Amino acid sequence: MEQLSFFSHSGQSAGLPGDVVDYHAGFIDQEKSDLLLKTLIRDTPWQQRLVKMYDREVLTPRLTAWYGNTDGIDYGALGKSTPMDWTASLLELKKLVEPVSGISFNSVLLNYYRNGRDSVAWHSDKETVMGSHPIIASVSFGAVRSFDIRKKENHHEKYSVRLEHGSLLIMKGDLQSGWEHRIAKTTENIGPRINLTFRRIMDPST
Ligand SMILES: O=C(O)CCC(=O)C(=O)O
Ligand SMILES: [Fe+2]
């Protein structure tokens, strides 16, 4: 049965599977969110990465940047680039999301969706380096986008939550092992959006 749910502004969490996602609207206040949207867009050394799609390489339809202090991890072996050093505002955000997440993070991936044509395709962040049940804290600023999740073994079991300016979404449980998520393109004429996913990368060899 189709379980796609769209909820109003205030009560979005009510319809979501609470064992895999927790949604907190207005986690960062309006003034701070406005400032972070502007300064992160302006000050981040954004990159558009090439990813392998079958036999060709394509540019990701969004810009990214990666920060962290994960000393001692062999990034080459993990197929990752070395992260940039934490900035003061990213460290401040990390301190805000950690008590709600219940763990400490050592890296953050920034995504910049320049308009409705930017997106991230269905995927899961099941990197062995985070373990199979990682907790990921996702903070959003700017244009509201729909975050869709669907069960891997039954694509009809899906939910959608609108990630608002200043919101926090906690991904947990088997969201990465049993589900996929995406930010779909939209034809709506919308402005830019920044998303930050705080992660705990662990070296599988230790
Ligand atoms: O932009 C978002 O809300 C999600 C980003 C995401 O899924 C990722 O970076 O792995
Ligand atoms: Fe993701």
Automatic annotation (TrEMBL):
InterPro entries: AlkB-like, AlkB-like_sf, ALKBH3, Oxoglu/Fe-dep_dioxygenase_dom
Range of residues in the leader sequence: none
GO molecular function: dioxygenase activity
Domain Fe2OG dioxygenase, chain residue ranges per copy: 104-202
Top-level taxon of origin: Bacteria
SUPFAM superfamilies: Clavaminate synthase-like
Keyword Oxidoreductase: yes
Pfam families registered for this protein in UniProt: 2OG-FeII_Oxy_2 (PF13532)
GO biological process: DNA alkylation repair
Record keyword Ligase present: no
Keywords associated with the record: Dioxygenase, Oxidoreductase
Name this polypeptide is given: Alpha-ketoglutarate-dependent dioxygenase AlkB
Protein source organism: Pedobacter roseus
